[in-house]
Specification:
Number of domains: 3
Structural class: alpha/beta
Largest sheet: 5 strands, parallel
Number of strands: 26
Helix content: 25-40%
Shape: globular
CATH architecture of the largest domain: 3-Layer(bba) Sandwich
CATH superfamily of the largest domain: FAD/NAD(P)-binding domain
Number of helices: 10
Strand order of the largest sheet: 3-2-1-7-19
Amino acid sequence: MTNLRLIVIGSGPAGIGAAETYRKHQPDAHIRILTADDRAPYERPPLSKDFLRGDTDDVDLHPREWFDEQAIELTLASPVSDIDTARRVVTAAGEEYGYDALVITSGASPTPLDVPGGERALQLRSLSDATRLRDSAGSATSAVIIGAGFIGCEAAASLAMRGLSVTLVAPSEVPQEKRLGAEAGRRIKDLVEATGATYRGGTGVASIDGDTVRLEDGTAITADLILAATGVSPNSEVAEKAGISVEDSRIVADADASTNVERVYAAGDVTKTFNDGAGRALVIEHWQDAADQGEVAGASAAGQQARWSAVPGFWTEIGDAAVKYHAWGDGYDDSRFVERDGGFTVWYSSAGTAVGVLTYNADDDYDRGEELIGAGKPVPAGE
């Protein structure tokens, strides 16, 4: 019987993927997941969609018995306060846990809305956040969503579909203009507004006063519910304090998920990870990519050869519309918008090669785009 011990910090897709993969390669090892969350591991994508709309309560990543079957100890409500890499000991909620390998998948936390009264706005990151938001929506007739990233767009659409009068506020004239381009932003705006929400672009939030959101252009919007979807900040402080290399607030990881500290690995939103396919380090905040990185971390921690090389990608559902995106995620030189029957495709290129594709009702382009991006080939000519 081996006495190998794996500690995983974090219970999101990267953490669960790491634990599950490690178990496959080390069937007799002791595995413990430490998480600050007080809920059993759950899927985050439905929180701004099906769950918020009230269409489902089933968001568990695995049934509780799965953890028993896998012999994975799940320790909830145990935020990690210290990592001693010399002793190989993690301290969480006052308890010490020894490890032979450590995988850090501590994720990220919502960035507070930095305006007077910003603390009054609800947030949407955890299941507890989503439950609070859904409960509040049950007695609300109006809502203001601040921030037009994909979470903001999804939440605005979901609340509008519940019958609330929803205003989505963002500084850009159209959602995601800087990231995806003006034409793509206009189409995303159309999808949001097709659910009944109103997009209010070109102005930021100056303050929140009670139930009133005051915009920088002088407009005041009163709402029963206010949600700030204003991005996230990586939870890297404990790792940095332990001497684990951090750059731009993210743990630096190689393609095999290793860090600068022996037997310490990292994956998911908290990392800046080298991608062999891209040939450079990438910052990715997508669910599937976190799961993929977690599997690499679990395999590497178990002594296997594994590296991250996949082209990052995700789906977003704005109401009933599924928008899909593959990209290296670090910019582009040129974009080309192509109309499709009932949808569209946007091809993104840099130095003549494909670096991204955004699609709506164009799944063939989505799949083709992944291949072109991974191979470093040009975008399709004349399309």
